């Protein structure tokens, strides 16, 4: 046995509330285009952090195996390569944000 049929007016009101909530959620998740400071800070952080971590790991391996400076140089270079890769990925992300902001402005 089923209960009484729902009121179409209540269903319509519920649908409108859901649409309004979706619009508010979408506005909250939209990201603005990045500023020049944000871009510079992100790029610098990516490069410095990966290079320092790579050099630190190399220094630790050299310290354990007494092979200075071989691993320090190798891991420093690997860290620099990883930093450059991260900057490239971040630039793709920033470009996507610029395009999204431009498309939003045009529409």
Description:
- The chain is an all-alpha fold and 107 residues long.
- It has a domain at 34-106.
- Helices cover 83% and strands 0% of the residues.
- It is built from 3 helices and no strands.
- It has helices at 8-29, 36-65, 70-106.
- Helix 2 (36-65) packs antiparallel against helix 3.
- The radius of gyration is 26 Å and the shape is elongated.
Question: What's the layout of helices and strands?
Answer:
Blueprint: H1 8-29, H2 36-65, H3 70-106
Q: What level of helicity do the residues show?
A: over 70%
Q: Could you give a short account of the major beta sheet? A: none
Strand segment count: 0
Rounded radius of gyration (Å): 26 Å
Order of SSEs: HHH
User: Oligomerization state of this entry?
Assistant: single chain
**Helical element count?**
3
Class based on secondary structure composition and strand pairing: mainly alpha
What share of the residues does DSSP label as strand, in percent? Answer: under 5%
